[in-house]
Amino acid sequence: MRRYTCPNCSNEVHFRNSACVNCHSRLGYVPAWDRMFHAGPDDIKWHDGVTAYRACANRQMISCNWLIEDEDPADHCRSCRHTLIIPDLSAPGNRDHWASLEEAKRRLFYSLEKFRLDMGDLAAEPGSALRFEFKADELSADGKTRRVMTGHANGLVTINVAEADDPTREKYRKAMGEPYRTLIGHFRHEVGHYYWDHMVYNTSRLDAYRAIFGDEREDYGSALKRHYDHGAPNGWEATHVSSYACSHSWEDFAETWAHYFHIVDGLETAGWYGLDGHTPDAGLDRTPGGWSDAGPYGAVEFEPLMQAWVPLTVAMNAMNRSIGLGDFYPFVLSETIFAKLEFIHRLIHDHR
Ligand SMILES: [Zn+2]
Ligand SMILES: [Zn+2]
Ligand SMILES: [Zn+2]
């Protein structure tokens, strides 16, 4: 992700900030411009000289800092409007969990915008556009817990809000033997299924896909059962980015898709902070690093991405160890995994 400055005082501000800590301007983010706008304490709206913007209806409730063009009839920003169901806000913790989910989702939408990936038209395609529902487990009348399964079906991404609770998510991570489990990881993974439906299935790429990721016609239910009963086969690290990726071809694609997002967004961040071996620009108004203006998100070639990424992860792991933390990047990439990542790179770039 890029860096932002307060347009009023030039202090560095973050993507999630609703106010500048230096000059106390009210900040809002306009995704179409990928920049922050500022307003005074008494201003109701934000202006860029030509267009007026107003706050997303979720600004007070969950600190969504995205703005909407004033003439847009929608109440919610481009990210929040894709959320159809939120958890019961009277239950303790749910408002904070929802806020964390939307914050991670705005980061997802940032990447989707940068890759120019279509999210579908909610009005024209209400049953197939990209939609989200955030639900909590429920106790039914018979005393049993009805568990909400995180997953994707026909554009609808369901996330169990318990994933937004750090101790709970950490408990799941340990129980599943995973080195990495985050909200942004969930979002990036689940939309991978949506884009598979639109960019791979029923296209000329399907044969090439099967040659790399295996045949997705394998029965999904029994494949998952095999995975949960027996785990990933020995030596899976040489071919898959995670053990869960071994469960089924679709999961391999979604795990690798999420991983590609981690790499590209990580490289963009590294570029803006001068961590990729390039000297960052003195100002923050142009794309730094050795990339074109669109940065790593617009990289045409796949190789340079990996050449920049691998040494960066080695350095970041060493940094973490030097202050006693676990690995920043608990993954090992093989040639087979590179080929999978390159398939996704080509898919997104050709579309872009
Ligand atoms: Zn400021
Ligand atoms: Zn919003
Ligand atoms: Zn999945």
Per-chain topology:
Layout: E1 4-5, E2 12-13, E3 26-30, E4 35-39, E5 46-47, E6 52-55, H1 59-62, E7 67-69, E8 83-85, H2 94-114, E9 131-135, E10 138-139, E11 145-146, E12 151-153, E13 156-160, H3 166-175, H4 183-199, H5 206-213, H6 220-230, H7 249-272, H8 303-322, H9 335-351
Parallel strand pairs: 8-9, 9-13
Antiparallel strand pairs: 1-2, 3-4, 5-6, 6-7, 10-11, 12-13
Helix pairs in contact: 2-4, 4-7, 7-8, 7-9
This protein binds zinc ion (ZN) (3 copies).
Residues 6, 8-9, 11, 20, 22-23, 25 line the site of one zinc ion.
Structure characterization notes:
The structure is a single chain. The protein is of the alpha+beta class and 352 residues long. The chain contains 9 helices and 13 strands. The protein has helices at 59-62, 94-114, 166-175, 183-199, 206-213, 220-230, 249-272, 303-322, 335-351; strands spanning 4-5, 12-13, 26-30, 35-39, 46-47, 52-55, 67-69, 83-85, 131-135, 138-139, 145-146, 151-153, 156-160. The strands form 5 sheets. Strands 8-9-13-12 form a 4-stranded mixed beta sheet, covered by helices on one side. A 3-stranded antiparallel beta sheet has the order 5-6-7, with no helix packed on it. Strand 1 and strand 2 (12-13) form a beta hairpin. Helix 4 crosses helix 7 (249-272) and helix 7 (249-272) crosses helix 8. It starts with a strand and ends with a helix.
